[in-house]
Every structure is written in C-alpha cells, then in structure tokens.
Amino acid sequence: MPEVLDARRMPEMELAYAIETRDLTRRFGKKVVVDHLNLRVPRGSIFAFLGRNGAGKTTAIRMLLDLLNPTDGEATLLGLDSVKGARDIRRRTGYVAQDEAMYDWMTVDRMIWFCRGFYPTWDDALAADLRRQLDLPGSQRIRALSRGKQAQLALLLAMAFRPELLILDEPTAGLDVVVRREFLEGVIELAQEEGRTIFFSSHLVHEVERVADWVGIMEEGKLLYCAPLEELKASVRRIVCTFPEPPPTPELPGLLRAEVEGKTLLCTVRDFGEATLAAARALNPTALAVEDLSLEDIFVALVGKGAV
C-alpha cells in the first residue's frame, strides 16, 4: 500500500488548511466506506479528490458538509468544526453536488432570485455577470436546459455569494468531453479571480491534470496519496530496462507494477530516487531510461489491477 505523502513536509504552522480531517470514518453496517481519512487541503489550492466510483469520495464530502454523520473522527472547514459550525460553513462554502437537484419548473432567473435570499453576501452584479459568461437564458425553465447548462447554473448559484471554499462533487458527470473541458476551465478561471480554495472530486483523471495543483487519491475508503501534483509526478516514475534475453524478475524498492514487452522490462515505482536507479542498474540491463508519467498512468499504477 503506498504511503500517504506529508503535505509538502513543511511545519504545520506554516500551512493554513481550508479542509482538515482527523481519522474521519463512516461505516454502513459492517462495510467501511471511509476509513480513517486524514486529509489536508491548503487554502488557495485547486485540490483534486480522485478515486474510482465507489471509492468513498461522495461519502467523505457529505460528512464534510454535515449532510452525513461520521461514525468516528472529525473534520474542520475554514477553521470551523464540521458539525458544530455547520451553519457558518454553509454560508461560506459553495457546493455543487453530482446531479444537483433544483426546482426544474422555475426559470433560470427565478431560481437565481430564489437562492439569493439565503445568502447575506449574495452579489447581484456577480450573478448577472456569471449568467452572461455562461450564456444561461434567464427566461428558460430549468427542465428545458441541457445537462451541461444545468451544471453551469448550479455553479452560478454556488459562486454568486462569493464563497471562500468551493466544493464540487463529480461536477462534470454526464457531460460530453467538450462541455466537461469548458466547464472545468471556467470553474478555475472564475474561482481564481477571488483566490478561493477549490476542492473537487472526480474519477475522470485525465481531465484533472490540466487544472489541479494538489491531488488526493482514494481507494476503497482509504487515502493513498495526498501531495502537490508536481511532487506526486516526481515521486512516481517508470524505469525502462532492455535486456539481451527475456527480462529477470525485478526486485526494486517501491515497485508498483512491472510489465514485460519482449526483452523490455517496464517498472513503475514510487518514491523514485538514487536507490531505485541503483537497484535497476543491478539487473544489468543493456539500456536503461527513466520516463515521466501522466497523472492517469500514476492513478492506474496505484489503484489498478497491477497495483501492489
């Protein structure tokens, strides 16, 4: 099981966290869906919370927002206890759920008017500007909007009161590839103008790499990695060794998966460093190369069938 990377390995007092959990756990009967989650999300980061469907991402988010009681552990958002401070957290946090439920008989403008009454910090000018940027037809009923436009409306409602923290749970599920890309890029552009923290869950790993600067990876309720994206990519690498005969069985530190292609051995390793290279050279290959991996390749190595 890969180790959880410490958050930049910096002293705790030097980092401020928008989200922090301590042994957050949720069981349904005997099934453990979230297992002692210890997560830190730095303020101002664009944090991608990754995992396959069923990894426990949505359950964790629902506990963060006091929509589901934890079995054990605790969480803080914006410095507030997720249970005791739930009311204040909701006033300061924008949330877009997967398949966001809205009154679909309302028009876009009516829905905006309805929601503005719940937030003292609602910004009418910002809401109007977002509606124009997202090209949302004010007079159209929500039920007549495409899935993509409904997701964009949910984003507007989550951002118009200028939240400090924006939580998006699989916000692009069900959207086609073009709309997904435009949506994610639009979220980042709009949110970064305010310097807010963005925390979004996804199983579409190839899209995350373009926008995130921090990554947390969940599998079967456990947090495998939590690190800056560039640190994660520097830690997990592929070593390609070529041999004159069929390759030997590798014994490399941090080995996640090994593949053989003819006389070539491809080893994906974590905690890459000089010790890893020395062990690879000890196999006596005729040629050796080190390759960078995409976030998707790293994700597959960690949680796929070949993961150790």
Question: Could you explain how this protein is built, in words?
Answer:
- There is one protein chain.
- Helices cover 30% and strands 28% of the residues.
- The chain is of the alpha/beta class.
- The chain has a six-stranded mixed beta sheet, with helices on both faces.
- The protein starts with 16 loop residues before the first strand and ends in a 5-residue tail after the last helix.
- Mean pLDDT is 87; it is low at 1-15.
Question: What's this entry about, in short?
Answer:
With about 300 residues, this protein is α/β, with parallel strands linked by helices. It is built from ten helices and 15 strands.
> Which regions have little confidence, pLDDT < 50, spanning 5+ residues?
1-15
Strand content bin: 25-35%
SS element count, helices: 10
Query: What is the terminal-to-terminal distance?
Result: 6 Å
Strand count, sense and barrel status of the largest sheet are:
6 strands, mixed
Strand order of the largest sheet: 7-8-9-4-10-11
Number of strand elements: 15
Radius of gyration over alpha carbons? Answer: 22 Å
Structural class: alpha/beta
Order of helices and strands: EEEEHEEHEHHHEHEHEEHEEEHEH
Name the shape in a single word.
Answer: elongated
**Overall pLDDT:** 87
Helical content (DSSP H or I, runs of 4+): 25-40%
